[in-house]
């Protein structure tokens, strides 16, 4: 790999202007294509084999006109009742205007005998709108235009809000401010690391180019398949963080090579072949971990995995092609525009602080292990109370469409109306449906049921059950489980009719259950794959084992903090939340894949340094001290950038984004400090020569991989001598 990366980098450096122009062209073309096609992000809640999916399948097959679901348009009279003559006339006029919109298939009026239940208290009523296209096939622009038209149609006497999937689509938060803050902090860290504006700008420039390209690719992909609404934000966080970090590692090695006397072109090629090799290895581990999410068989989770993987791949490619080309263009100007700093930022400056720290850990390894493990366990303890839920729309800003519809619906019909349960019945006898409707209407946790609607053949029926509690409430989850396990089986006992509980709320309950079932499998798979990759990299059994255990400890601590802050609400106000919110069901699964992959970045960069030193000295303790002393500053600088990028996303208005931001930032901070710079070296000191134990049978079959390629250049230079 070293030889190939060296040749690739040398090619990019020789044709530097063409390579930079090619990257610029790709970024521009992809962005233009993405802009012309539009974005169509949506959440795919299909879960084969789950009860909510059975309800959806029955709806698709027996009620094709309802297959796209209905969108509530909620009206509230600013004065008087919504049924007052003038207000009713205004609502009717609005509905007539909406029915003429291109995307609208039909919309009913709440002022008929059949739809009397659509008129609530406090001057509120809603109309049910059915669109021509299902969620995920409407562009963001068309969705915005339709919502704007609905607001315009309401006039001055009514407040109006749109609910359902359309509201979710137009309420996607903008994260530009979070990205800007993350970039600003990253620039400051890079200035303190390199001491020059030119050197600081290169990782930023490379990462932004990669991010623009990957975001364009995701937008284009959303027109071909259903890509989650969370995917762009998650890919931005990961792409920006690893993009800057990977460039930081390559640039650090480039400056060191120049300090050793190599010309800029040769230094850049060597940096891409050595640090770039570690980047490719670590990045590939991240991609493997992310793509393993596909084996969970959950479409929503799979889109998050491959979206983030796309961002990582683009960042890797940019670090080993675009960055060397830029380094070739800049040449000796890498250290221009220096800023005055109180510390030495030269390429080979002494790391006395890290040397002393490493020596202290080596002298007291057992206390270091005990303190580290106890601290991680204490932080992880709240995870024992973790309950997986769904996004709580009540926690979104009041300025968003989805929050406005939530509040209006709650005022007029109660919070349960925000998450109606779809009861879909495969009918044998119509009397069965009446019996079932009466039983569900009298069940605990159900406020009311709507009149059943039969299809033309009379062999299927649907109706809604309105919970007494909000969609995110654990009581609502209990209600769904009780309906499935008790109420429905008893009501239909002895009949051939079959009923399913579906709808978005039930779908998220099923998603949480599915993730709970699949999480152990994904954890096992990722741990095994990572173990095998590290065995190949370091030709050791104990190092991959301790890496797996320590990664699990740091991820457990991250889960504990997310539970403590979000589910229990401690400090929630400090990050812009009004109180406790549920931990989104897919967060632990996706976080695990991301963090296990990212933690390997720092593991690889630390252990390659230790391994090279051990090969040279055959002294385990000295190798640990030297490896930590040489890599500690770079690892912590890279981690600080990653933490800044992730944590800046708490500025987002979306609680789910905040959860990812806090969880990922804290996990990286813990991993790069307590785990990599304290626990790992302490354990390696205690393990002594057993760190490098490798069974002889494996010695003969496992290939010898030199991740950073130093041996390759040693052989070349030895041959020249």
Can you describe this structure?
This protein is an alpha+beta fold. 63% of the residues lie in helices and 7% in strands. It contains 23 helices and 11 strands. The chain has helices spanning 2-14, 16-37, 51-62, 85-99, 140-153, 164-170, 176-194, 197-221, 231-259, 264-291, 299-330, 352-363, 365-380, 401-413, 430-441, 474-491, 504-538, 542-567, 587-617, 620-647, 655-687, 696-701, 710-720, and strands at residues 70-77, 104-107, 124-131, 158-162, 388-389, 421-426, 446-449, 453-454, 460-467, 498-502, 583-584. Strands 6, 7, 8, 9 and 10 form a 5-stranded antiparallel sheet that branches. The longest helix is centred in the C-terminal third of the chain and has 35 residues, at 504-538. The mean pLDDT is 86.
Topology:
Elements: H1 2-14, H2 16-37, H3 51-62, E1 70-77, H4 85-99, E2 104-107, E3 124-131, H5 140-153, E4 158-162, H6 164-170, H7 176-194, H8 197-221, H9 231-259, H10 264-291, H11 299-330, H12 352-363, H13 365-380, E5 388-389, H14 401-413, E6 421-426, H15 430-441, E7 446-449, E8 453-454, E9 460-467, H16 474-491, E10 498-502, H17 504-538, H18 542-567, E11 583-584, H19 587-617, H20 620-647, H21 655-687, H22 696-701, H23 710-720
Parallel strand pairs: 5-11
Antiparallel strand pairs: 1-3, 1-4, 2-3, 6-9, 6-10, 7-9, 8-9
Helix pairs in contact: 1-2, 1-10, 1-11, 2-8, 2-11, 4-5, 5-6, 7-8, 7-9, 7-20, 8-9, 8-11, 9-10, 9-11, 9-20, 10-11, 10-19, 12-20, 13-18, 13-21, 15-16, 17-18, 17-19, 18-19, 18-21, 19-20, 19-21, 20-21
